[in-house]
Design goal:
The protein contains ten helices and ten strands.
Length: about 290
């Protein structure tokens, strides 16, 4: 399937078949071209575009995958309602001079006899893993499949999904995969809300209420900057900001060590304040990196 527009001097192509993309990537690699991959679930926004542009700077051929992965959604989650906009996404990729869009069917990536999945011993059990059992099993499995198909030299992910980024890096390390994992800063709206494909599912009133999330993160960052060293008080202050917004339902607010995501009792070293909350039926996550001075 060829789409109008040019990427690297040729028509951008939307690939549907695993074997077709494998062959394209094999040929590119044989010619010494470094392949860059941006895995997405579509509904592209400026956050995704920032990943694409950085990967373009670091590779010779860019593949953007667009696939709403069913195995990372649990029962009752928003798989069916998750926004899908392939035509608009392809237009964005053409404008950004992407070389190939990979948009397979579910059957193409998960044949009916599939039995193999990626599991983790510890990193996937807390936070998002506790709230969404099986989520990271699905994430890691589909990312590993994409790595196997594309054989990228480098792949980019957003820092908003901090636990996901850490898990993917651990998978690459543990399975000795030959791919560099690049994690780029969260891109935000002017009012501070982290860009997310799920933002499209918010009503005007819910969108306003969701601003409690960046306010909570800012409150925590300010307390640390001012010298607060009790981790419980920092997390509690962030939680209070969220609780003050009646449309927000908190899942978790946790201050953790950035390297292993374990809760901390004292503000020291490199940390992340992680937040997950629902606004109406839309679940949002965000985080802020905190550094204790001195």
């Amino acid at each position: 399937m060829l789409e109008s527009g040019f990427a690297s001097g040729q028509l951008m192509e939307v690939i549907r078949r695993v074997q077709s993309l494998k062959e394209i990537c094999r040929q590119a690699e044989s010619r010494g071209r470094r392949i860059g991959l941006v895995p997405t679930m579509g509904s592209l926004h400026d956050g995704h575009i920032s990943l694409i542009r950085r990967i373009q700077e670091l590779s010779d051929l860019v593949v953007v995958s667009i696939f709403v992965n069913p195995t990372q959604f649990g029962p009752g989650e928003d798989y069916a309602a998750y926004p899908r906009s392939l035509t608009e996404d392809v237009d964005i990729c053409i404008a950004e001079k992407v070389d190939y869009v990979f948009s397979p069917s579910v059957q193409e990536l998960y044949p009916s006899n599939s039995e193999t999945f990626v599991e983790f011993a510890n990193l996937s059990t807390d936070l998002e893993g506790a709230s969404r059992p099986g989520h990271f099993r699905g994430v890691a499995t589909v990312v590993l499949k994409l790595f196997q198909i594309v054989q990228p030299g480098i792949a980019a992910f957003g820092r908003k999904d901090a636990q996901q980024a850490l898990i993917i890096r651990r998978m690459v390390q543990d399975l000795m995969l030959d791919v560099e994992v690049l994690v780029l800063p969260t891109v935000r709206e002017e009012d501070g809300l982290a860009l997310s494909s799920r933002n499209r599912m918010l009503s005007t009133e819910q969108r306003r209420a969701a601003l409690a999330i960046p306010r909570a993160l800012e409150t925590a960052a300010r307390m640390v900057k001012e010298g607060q060293r009790n981790a419980g008080k920092v997390a509690a202050a962030a939680r209070e900001v969220l609780e003050a917004e009646e449309l927000v339902t908190i899942d978790y607010v946790e201050l953790v060590d950035e390297k292993n995501l374990k809760p901390v009792s004292q503000v020291q070293g490199e940390m992340l304040l992680l937040v997950a909350a629902s606004v109406g039926k839309t679940r949002l996550i965000d985080n802020v990196a905190l550094r204790a001075r001195g």
